Amino acid sequence: MHFSPGSPGRVFVNKVQRHYDEIADIYDDRYGGRRGRSYHQHISDHVMSVLPKGGFLLDVGCGTGLFVKRYIREGGQAVGLDISPRMVIYGRQRCPESGFCVGTADVLPFQDETFDALASLLAFSYVPDPEAMLAESYRVLKPGGRIAICTLSRTVFTSIVPVIYQVGEKVGLKKVGVGDFGERYYTNTEIAGLLDDAGFTDISVGRCSFAHLNLTDPIFTLARKVEPIIEERLPYLAYNVCAAGKKPGSPGIPAGVYRD
Fold first, then answer.
1. Integer angstrom CA distances of residue 215 from 172, 181, 209, 219
2. Which of 51, 93, 107 is nearest to 74 (CA)?
3. How many CB atoms lie within 10 A of CB 210?
4. 124-128, long-range: CB within 8 Å, 24+ apart, which pairs?
5. What residue spans define the domains of the chain?
6. CA dist., res. 59 & res. 91, Å (int)
7. Which of 44, 126, 140, 234 has the most CB atoms lying inside 10 A of its own CB?
8. Number of alpha carbons in the 13 Å side-chain half-sphere of residue 104
9. In the beta sheet, which residues pair with residue 58?
10. In degrees, to the nearest 5, what angle opens at C-alpha 259 toward C-alphas 55 and 74?
11. Contact, 149 vs 242, CB < 8 A?
């Protein structure tokens, strides 16, 4: 849906865009250190495990192209879309062989049945109209295409995050994601319901990321060691929710085959 000028939805979209334009130059610093690399690798592994390899991917909320690069490295082709023009510039620098464009998730500038796979890492919580985003995702996926989303989950830990980020915005802290954006934290049931309502089948939902990159050492190292146990036995403590689904129909390519 398109938001009218001055509407709450438009104000929200503009605020998120300004924030990520402002922090684009430090975004990669967040994932460049040991904790950041480990954290992003972990969620990328979860997303990659449910997507067809060697396909044509759309990364919604692509940031500076970190996951686009990962998908290409594993034999696929990819296009990135982000709300922030400056993030798109960095994405083009990281993956000059791929296409990047500025846009919003609720109106994807692509033809029907274009992609074999669609991913969204750490962006879905900022989408003001998730139903529209998933309807558009369904539209641009080929029959048999797969979607994978990793986003913020609702837990006892994340319940206090919005307050911390609101305070951070008031004191002018320049840090990725810090601000009052009205982001949504999803339960497994909520995100599964959204995928089901959009028409996706073979829906799977799980939790990941107990070792969040904002933890300091030695706490991060300890959290990383117990992370597999937490995800398997105490998933409600994990920071992110990962959901996947399939658009009904036969896939355009088998998994693991490069798309010409």
1. 21, 22, 12, 6
2. 51
3. 24
4. 124/61, 124/149, 124/150, 124/151, 124/186, 125/151, 125/152, 125/183, 125/184, 125/185, 125/186, 126/16, 126/61, 126/181, 126/183, 127/61, 128/3, 128/9, 128/12, 128/13, 128/182
5. 8-246
6. 11
7. 126
8. 18
9. 79, 118
10. 55
11. yes
* Burial letters 90-129, b for 16+ CB under 10 A, else e: bbbebbeebebbeebbbebeeeeebbbbbbbbbbbbbbbb
Residue type, 256: G
| Single-letter amino acid, residue 61 | G
Alpha-carbon radius of gyration of the chain: 17
Q: What is the tens place of the pLDDT at every residue in 82-124?
A: 999 999 999 999 999 999 999 999 999 999 999 999 999 999 9
Q: Is the dihedral of CA 61, 67, 68, 69 positive or negative?
A: positive
Indicate the average pLDDT of the chain: 84
* Tokens read off for 162: 């919005």
Tokens of 256: 């693991």
Instruction: Give the homologous superfamily in CATH for domain 8-246.
Output: Vaccinia Virus protein VP39 (3.40.50.150)
pTM for the whole thing?
A: 0.84
Would you say 124 and 106 are in contact if contact means Cβ atoms under 8 Å apart? no
- Type of residue at 72: I
